[in-house]
Design brief:
This protein is mainly alpha-helical. It has a domain of 130 residues. 76% of the residues lie in helices and 3% in strands. A two-stranded parallel sheet has the order 1-2. Helix 5 crosses helix 7.
Length: 187
C-alpha cells in the first residue's frame, strides 16, 4: 500500500509535508499579492488577509523570504524525523500535519480563483468587508467540516493518519473559533 511505503520512509513522508507547507506559503503570497493588486476593491479583510498571527507580518509585507517560515519548516521536519522510529506517533503526527495542510490548500485554491476573477471585476460586483473575527469563524467551520470528513473516513478505515488528520483539523477549528470569539468580544 502506498501509505505504508510513505510512512516507512521518513524522507518521503517529511518531503511530502514540506512540499505542501511550501505550497501553502507560495499560495498565500500569490493570493495576498492578487488581493493587494485589485481583488481588494471587492473584498476587504479587516485585520489583513493572513489568519495565522505568526506569519501575519510577513504576508502583509509580501516577504518572499521569511525567516519564520524556514524556522517552522526546520523545526517540524526535525520533530518528524525524531519521532519516525515510533510508527504510531509518527502516523498520528504526520496525519495532523497533512490533514491541516489539505484544508489550507483547498481554501487557497478557492481564494486564488476568487481573486483571479475579482482583480478585473469579472463576475464580481460591489464590496464585501469581512471583520477578522468572521474570517476566523468561517475558517473554523471549514476546518470543522474537513475534520468531520476525516473522522468519518477514520471510522471506516481505522488509519492513524486519518485520526491525526481529524485531530489536526478539529484542533485548528477550535483554535480559530476561540480566537474568533475573543476578537468578536473586543469589537
Amino acid at each position: 500500500m502506498l501509505l505504508s511505503t510513505v510512512l516507512n520512509n521518513a524522507w518521503i513522508a517529511i518531503g511530502l509535508w514540506a512540499v505542501l507547507f511550501c505550497l501553502d506559503y507560495i499560495f498565500t503570497m500569490k493570493a495576498a499579492r492578487m488581493y493587494q493588486m485589485g481583488a481588494n476593491k471587492h473584498f476587504i479583510f479587516a485585520g489583513g488577509y493572513e489568519l495565522n498571527e505568526y506569519f501575519k507580518e510577513d504576508v502583509a509585507k509580501l516577504k518572499v523570504f521569511s525567516f519564520r517560515f524556514w524556522l517552522v519548516l526546520i523545526i517540524v521536519a526535525g520533530t518528524l524525523l525524531i519521532i519516525h522510529p515510533l510508527p504510531e506517533a509518527f502516523a498520528l503526527a504526520w496525519g495532523m500535519l497533512i490533514g491541516t495542510q489539505m484544508a489550507v490548500q483547498l481554501r487557497h485554491i478557492n481564494n486564488l480563483m476568487r481573486f483571479y476573477y475579482a482583480r478585473d471585476s469579472r463576475g464580481t460586483k460591489g464590496r464585501i468587508e469581512t471583520d477578522h473575527w468572521l474570517s476566523l469563524r468561517l475558517s473554523a467551520v471549514s476546518f470543522l467540516s474537513l475534520g468531520v470528513l476525516f473522522l468519518f473516513l477514520f471510522l471506516l478505515m481505522g488509519s492513524l493518519v486519518l485520526l491525526g488528520a481529524t485531530v489536526g483539523c478539529l484542533a485548528m477549528s477550535l483554535r480559530h473559533f476561540l480566537d474568533s470569539a475573543k476578537q468578536n468580544k473586543q469589537n
